[in-house]
Amino acid sequence: MLLSVDFPMWLKPEIIPGLPFRWYGLMYILAFATAFLVYRRQVKERRFPMTEEQLYSLFTWGILGLLLGARLFSALVYSGDRYILRPWLIFWPFENGHFTGLMGMSYHGGAIGGLLGVILWARAKRFNFREIGDMYAASIPLGYTFGRLGNFINGELYGRVTTGPLGMVFPHATPLAASEPWVQEAAEKTGAVRSGLVNLPRHPSQLYEMILEGLVLWAIIWFFRNRKPAKGFLIGLYFLGYGFFRFFIEYFREPDADLGYRIQLVKNTLPTALAHPPLSFSTGQILCFGMIVFGIVWMIIVSRLPDHVPVRVYEKSEGKPEKAKTTEEKASERNRRRKQRRKLR
After folding, report:
1. Whose C-alpha in 127, 178, 225, 322 is 20 to 30 A from the C-alpha of 52?
2. H helices present in the chain, as ranges
3. Where does 159-282 have alpha helices with state H?
4. Which residues are registered as beta bridge partners of 161?
């Protein structure tokens, strides 16, 4: 009985065969555009004191930091010593005379680089980073869905072998030796050809990430955007939520063959394509654990800062830039007006 589906063969990495325009690059553009539009909506609905020019400037810094961080982190953490002797190749978009773009981008590196870019911009323009960061946190996950969709179209970052109904046969997945007993058993269950090398169904983990780290995380943060207890709270919620979802999904992904599990509390000899033991942790899980800890600590810190009270909507003053008033300030002003009316009576 066939319990899996084939990868859609009409999906190709190139938008137009023979031309160097790839769906993955287009997905990046759509991701940035989506995050920008969601961010601009927040600026307008809150009447945040930021001009359109400043908004474009902010995203330029953020995107530049993201791209630099994502590429550097991928080259230094996931590519071993390939670039140690030839570091200029990190940003070289050609290989063997062919245009390949920047091959290899790390999400965690992009998060660090983008965060630094936004911090530097906020300091240079004298904006409150916690306010800027909260609106970013409510914008990024929705755009992130396109990034994982791009991974799916490329047929990369697929998950472990599965015999369940969610399995998908990816054309570029590493074939497995049919002589292995577990491979024969999985092939029999899924109806795959059991001779020579077998391409078994895999978890479409890119789609899992698109849903949980993208749509679900965005919905959670969007719900809290007008209910946050402190300035900067959404930043911590983003790091905590992404770290949690990604840590969980890593159990369905196959770790990089050259890296394997960085930490194994209990040694095991199971193939990484078959199983991910609960006490074995990949590079992604280690980094996600750091994100979870950072998110929790950050939320505790920002909730105890003197000016932690969030501003829901900024008020306009006559002909001047919009001026922020906290909930406490608004209540104080209402009380002051009541006292003035009583005196007039």
Report:
1. 225
2. 23-46, 52-73, 107-125, 129-137, 140-154, 181-190, 205-209, 217-224, 233-249, 283-302, 327-344
3. 181-190, 205-209, 217-224, 233-249
4. 202
